[in-house]
Design brief:
This protein is of the alpha/beta class. It has ten helices and twelve strands. It has a six-stranded mixed sheet with strand order 2-1-3-5-6-4, with helices on both faces. Helix 8 links the parallel strand 11 and strand 12. Helix 1 crosses helix 9. The longest helix has 16 residues. The protein is globular and about 60 Å long. The structure holds NADPH dihydro-nicotinamide-adenine-dinucleotide phosphate. The site of NADPH dihydro-nicotinamide-adenine-dinucleotide phosphate has 26 residues, from helix 6 and helix 9.
Length: about 270
């Protein structure tokens, strides 16, 4: 029997998940169907329960439901618990196992696809929202020489630095305090680019030969990437690889087989121009 999976969110007009998982299923010979469920804003739990009752095996969760998925989970992985958010669920009877693959997808893209190891590097993470939270544990696991979180609301960055202190060396900083510091990898995990805005970083944060990584995807050269380009960053990337890599993690978790990601990343890549 064909196993059913879905992505749930609102709005979902832009979702690439059915395309990605459909392609993974064909490439690995898995008999599954993957759909998109745009649940009403007050109807997340009801939509999940209806999907489970109809035999659904698992779901990806996107905005704005990642926190509600955290609430209904019966088993949380450590990274989902620390991120305070869930982006993948697996159903088994009454059990709802929950994961957060966003951060590991980001790390896999940076290290495996882009060839920038995090170990021993100076890393700057801009933002302290859901995506930044999810990235912290996977980043720290790679033992960067330095991990600095900068956020517009500096208290949020400070709270994250305190919460994750036992997992590695990291510190919080206000944007103004970054003056005079440069980094090998600069990750924009703010949502500024979704509105065509630039987080208040200066060109000096981009070290010679650095990677500038924009989590938003499909937007071409965002103000952040344009700034990095002007500062001489050696490599610019957007979050399309992260999107495909987190999908691959979920697929493997559900099906026990790892899909190849390269062709799908190429298919979805929008030129950075
Ligand atoms: P949140 O809403 O949880 O967090 C937003 C963050 O951006 C906050 O830290 C906020 O700061 C900061 N911010 C917003 N506007 C500005 C601005 N103008 N200047 C400086 N900081 C700003 O968003 P998410 O963490 O869920 O998402 C962040 C980004 O990551 C989005 O672009 C999203 O599309 C992308 N993303 C990509 C994924 C992928 O697979 N590629 C997966 C998940 C997310 P403050 O705290 O001060 O408000």
């Amino acid at each position: 029997m064909t196993d059913r999976y879905a992505v749930i969110g609102n709005p979902l007009g832009h979702t690439k998940s059915p395309l990605i998982h459909g392609s993974f299923a064909r490439a690995t010979g898995q008999d599954l169907e993957y759909s998109a469920i745009e649940a009403p804003l007050d109807g997340f739990k009801a939509a999940v329960n209806a999907f489970r009752a109809a035999g659904g095996r698992g779901m990806n969760v996107t905005a704005p439901f990642k926190l509600q998925a955290f609430e209904i989970a019966t088993e949380l992985s450590e990274r989902a618990r620390l991120a305070g958010a869930v982006n993948a669920m697996k159903f088994d009877g009454e059990r709802i196992a929950a994961e957060n693959f966003d951060g590991v997808g980001l790390v896999n893209d940076i290290q495996r696809n882009l060839g920038f190891p995090l170990k021993g590097r100076r890393v700057l993470l801009l933002g302290a929202g859901g995506a930044a939270r999810g990235a912290l544990l996977p980043f720290l696991a790679q033992q960067p020489a330095e991990l600095v979180i900068a956020n517009r609301t500096s208290e949020k960055a400070q709270a994250l630095a305190t919460q994750f202190a036992s997992f590695g060396t990291l510190r919080a900083s206000g944007y103004a305090n970054l003056a005079g510091h440069s980094f090998d990898i600069v990750v924009n995990a703010t949502s500024a680019s979704l509105r065509g805005e630039l987080p208040p970083v200066r060109t000096e944060v981009f070290a010679r030969g650095c990677l500038a990584y924009e989590l938003a995807y499909g937007k071409g050269l965002t103000p952040f990437l344009r700034l990095a380009q002007g500062a001489g960053a050696a490599h610019l990337a957007d979050g399309v690889g992260m999107l495909v890599e987190q999908a691959a993690e979920a697929f493997e978790w559900w099906r026990g087989v790892r899909p190849d990601t390269r062709a799908m990343i190429e298919q979805l890549t929008v030129p950075l121009a």
